[in-house]
Amino acid sequence: MASIRANCRKIICIGRNYADHIAELNNSKPKQPFFFLKPPSSLLIPGAGPILRPKGVKLHYEVELGLVMGSRLRDHDPKDVKGALNSIAGKLRLYNAPNKYAGTSYSHRLSFSSGYVVAIDMTARNVQDSAKRAGLPWSIAKGFDTFSPISSLISKSAIPDPHNATLHLEVDGVSKQLDNTGLMIYKIPRQLADISRVMTLDPGDLVLTGTPKGVGEVTNGQVMTAGIRVDGKEIEEGRLEVMVKDREGRYEFAEN
């Protein structure tokens, strides 16, 4: 999992991709898919510690299916469903060739399997709402350190159809989110096509495919569990458990 964090160049997320989630936040359905970025520094791999809630932040959870890209994708045809799903599969091998311009003579090879992860897109909701009211970008609301916890890697074969799996999230053992990925408004091939016509998707990039209804707040000391089921069976690699702790430091939320 450390290799995923080390080689993830960008995290791309689709917004408003489940109708009931759009309704619960009183948002409007987009006419086209829209996306936002999260920094790779926000990734929190299993066992790396708690989610840190900055001072004054109203912290919300959003469980999602994540795609770890296994091959480069650029200007993809949305009708090519097989090609889109194949871009998630396989063994990823990254090579850093010697750089003659920098005078270095070393080379390094790293390999890991691509596939799926369960992710929680943590959101500083009051930071986001304040920025929206002021007509300002809201990258900070999604980008704090630890705001992208992910599960262990799930092989592609464990989820034969990523549009027919059940995402779930609990807070202190109480069910909060439970829905099927088949409810996505824009399916994975369309998402990858729309992203790749703007920016190249590289091996190791992480794509978050949207959250179902049931998002809500978590506070200091609460524990979230999340996962994914296929045909009613829990995928062990997709199990995620993480605690929320208040963060120390100089940041404190203030209205824009």
UniProtKB/TrEMBL annotation:
GO cellular component terms, semicolon-separated: mitochondrion
Q: Which domain of life is it from?
A: Eukaryota
Annotated Fumarylacetoacetase-like C-terminal domain ranges read: 10-90, 114-227
Asked if the record carries the keyword Calcium, the reply is no
Q: Gene3D superfamilies, alphabetically?
A: Fumarylacetoacetase-like, C-terminal domain
A Pfam family recorded for this sequence: FAA_hydrolase
Q: Name one GO molecular function term.
A: acetylpyruvate hydrolase activity
Residues making up the signal peptide according to the UniProt record: none
InterPro entries for this protein: Fumarylacetoacetase-like_C, Fumarylacetoacetase_C_sf
Q: Which UniProt keywords apply?
A: Hydrolase, Metal-binding
What PANTHER family has UniProt attached to this entry? ACYLPYRUVASE (PTHR11820), ACYLPYRUVASE FAHD1, MITOCHONDRIAL (PTHR11820:SF7)
Q: Which protein family is named in the record?
A: Belongs to the FAH family.
Question: Which protein, by its recorded name, is this?
Answer: Fumarylacetoacetate hydrolase
State the species of origin.
Answer: Trichophyton violaceum
Lineage, highest ranks first: Eukaryota, Fungi, Dikarya, Ascomycota, Pezizomycotina
